[in-house]
């Protein structure tokens, strides 16, 4: 069974084609600048040379048609015909409370996804465009929606209800939803495998640390708490996002600086976080270099980042009454050796002991804890596309 995985943004799309009989990757690629001048496709077929195709792509339908043409191309394609694609799995950012699992797209399911647009106005519309484009181009191929929020829907009410009037939850569904669900799901399941146990037997804290970052407490295979909330702004300090702050700061700044709601939202989402503290960059590599050069604000930014991650790990160990493994994943989690060491420093009370030699690695699946450590410290490269493909296979296979 061959599954095409689509991850559509407002002006871009990432894709992978996988043979789910073996879970082998056949091809992957990225389309950039959809609807913008200078659009192009970077197509990477397994075992063949990478190809860059430059052509105008005014819509997602045109972009996806180009992707399909690349997949069946005589020179750089990997299949002979579009009919070899048995199903398409789509990343959908927000499923609200409606979806606790992935779903085959029907007219009713599509309406429910559209109803969630208000909860993710920057993401769901693009995800919807991707589904509609595939339906137009591949009308007989099943489409599956896989939701970032679904894995977190096992949280108890005590974890997702905010301390505001309950009527706002009832009227507007304001609650904690959590994001990066496919990543947390994948690495939590892999962690259980690495520990030689069933997911229902372990307590895992998964740290998805990228430009956007979140942490989840996964107890016996189910999420009991997560750091992102109603939106992906809450929780950790991130690349350009502030994370959790005193909410009274918002009206204070709006009054002092004469800012509108849209302007303060832009500051919190795009000008804060590591960029805002360091004044240099949102990129950890740039900040790390600046710290090495003696930049105080860069040092503070890294210390703040490590402090927040450490604080969530400690609190989630309390929420679960213990922890068997701490997992680092995503761009920063998989590659920032020194930052992982900073985060683990001070967690020894949990029974964690990081081995500096084992920690000297990037992008490899490994237990970085010292021999005899009570808690495993795992580096697990994430694979969200594989989760989407697996869910699609289960529903359509």
TrEMBL record:
Keywords, in A-Z order:
ATP-binding, Cytoplasm, Kinase, Magnesium, Metal-binding, Nucleotide-binding, Transferase
* Any single Gene Ontology cellular-component annotation: cytoplasm
Hey, which pathway is this one from?
Metabolic intermediate biosynthesis; acetyl-CoA biosynthesis; acetyl-CoA from acetate: step 1/2
Q: Which residues form the active site?
A: 148
**Pfam families xrefs:** Acetate_kinase
Q: Provide the E.C. number(s) assigned to this enzyme.
A: 2.7.2.1
- Keyword hit for Electron transport: no
Binding note for cofactor: Mg(2+). Can also accept Mn(2+).
* Keyword Chloroplast part of the UniProt annotation: no
**Coiled-coil residue spans:** none
Record-linked InterPro entries: Ac/propionate_kinase, Aliphatic_acid_kin_short-chain, Aliphatic_acid_kinase_CS, ATPase_NBD
As for subcellular location, the record says:
Cytoplasm
An annotated Gene Ontology molecular function: acetate kinase activity
Q: Where does ATP bind?
A: 14, 208-212, 283-285, 331-335
What PANTHER family is this protein classified in? ACETATE KINASE (PTHR21060), ACETATE KINASE-RELATED (PTHR21060:SF15)
Entry's family note:
Belongs to the acetokinase family.
- Role noted for this protein: Catalyzes the formation of acetyl phosphate from acetate and ATP. Can also catalyze the reverse reaction.
What name does this protein carry?
Answer: Acetate kinase
Record organism: Desulfofarcimen acetoxidans (strain ATCC 49208 / DSM 771 / KCTC 5769 / VKM B-1644 / 5575) (Desulfotomaculum acetoxidans)
List the taxonomic lineage: Bacteria, Bacillati, Bacillota, Clostridia, Eubacteriales
């Amino acid at each position: 069974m061959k599954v095409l995985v689509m991850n559509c943004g407002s002006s871009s799309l990432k894709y992978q084609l996988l043979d789910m009989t073996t879970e082998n990757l056949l091809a992957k690629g990225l389309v950039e600048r959809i609807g913008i001048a200078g659009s192009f496709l970077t197509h990477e077929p397994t075992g063949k040379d990478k190809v860059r195709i430059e052509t105008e792509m005014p819509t997602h339908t045109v972009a996806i048609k180009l992707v399909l043409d690349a997949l069946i191309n005589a020179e750089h394609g990997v299949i002979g015909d579009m009919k070899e694609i048995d199903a398409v799995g789509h990343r959908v950012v927000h499923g609200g409370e409606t979806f606790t699992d992935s779903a085959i797209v029907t007219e009713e399911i599509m309406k429910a996804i559209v109803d969630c647009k208000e909860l993710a106005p920057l993401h769901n519309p693009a995800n919807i465009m991707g589904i509609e484009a595939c339906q137009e181009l591949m009308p007989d191929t099943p489409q599956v929606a896989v939701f970032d929020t679904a894995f977190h829907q096992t949280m108890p009410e005590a974890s997702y209800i905010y301390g505001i009037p309950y009527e706002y939850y009832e009227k507007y569904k304001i609650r904690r939803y959590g994001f990066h669900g496919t990543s947390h799901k994948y690495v939590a399941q892999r962690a259980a495998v690495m520990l030689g146990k069933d997911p229902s037997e372990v307590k895992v804290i998964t740290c998805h640390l990228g430009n956007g970052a979140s942490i989840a407490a996964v107890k016996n295979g189910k999420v009991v708490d997560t750091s992102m909330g109603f939106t992906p702004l809450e929780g950790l300090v991130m690349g350009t996002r502030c994370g959790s702050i005193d909410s009274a700061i918002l009206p204070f700044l709006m009054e002092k600086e004469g800012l509108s709601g849209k302007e303060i939202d832009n500051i919190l989402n795009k000008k804060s976080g590591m960029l805002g503290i360091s004044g240099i960059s949102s990129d950890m590599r740039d900040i790390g270099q600046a710290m090495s050069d003696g930049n105080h604000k860069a040092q503070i930014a890294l210390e703040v980042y490590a402090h927040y991650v450490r604080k969530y790990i400690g609190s989630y160990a309390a929420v679960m009454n213990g922890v068997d493994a701490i997992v680092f994943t995503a761009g920063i989690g998989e590659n920032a050796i020194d930052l992982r060491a900073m985060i683990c420093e001070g967690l020894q009370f949990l029974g964690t002991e990081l081995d500096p030699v084992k920690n000297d690695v990037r992008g490899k699946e490994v237990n970085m804890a010292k021999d005899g450590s009570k808690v495993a410290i795992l580096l697990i490269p994430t694979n969200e596309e594989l989760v989407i493909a697996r869910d699609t296979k289960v529903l359509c296979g």
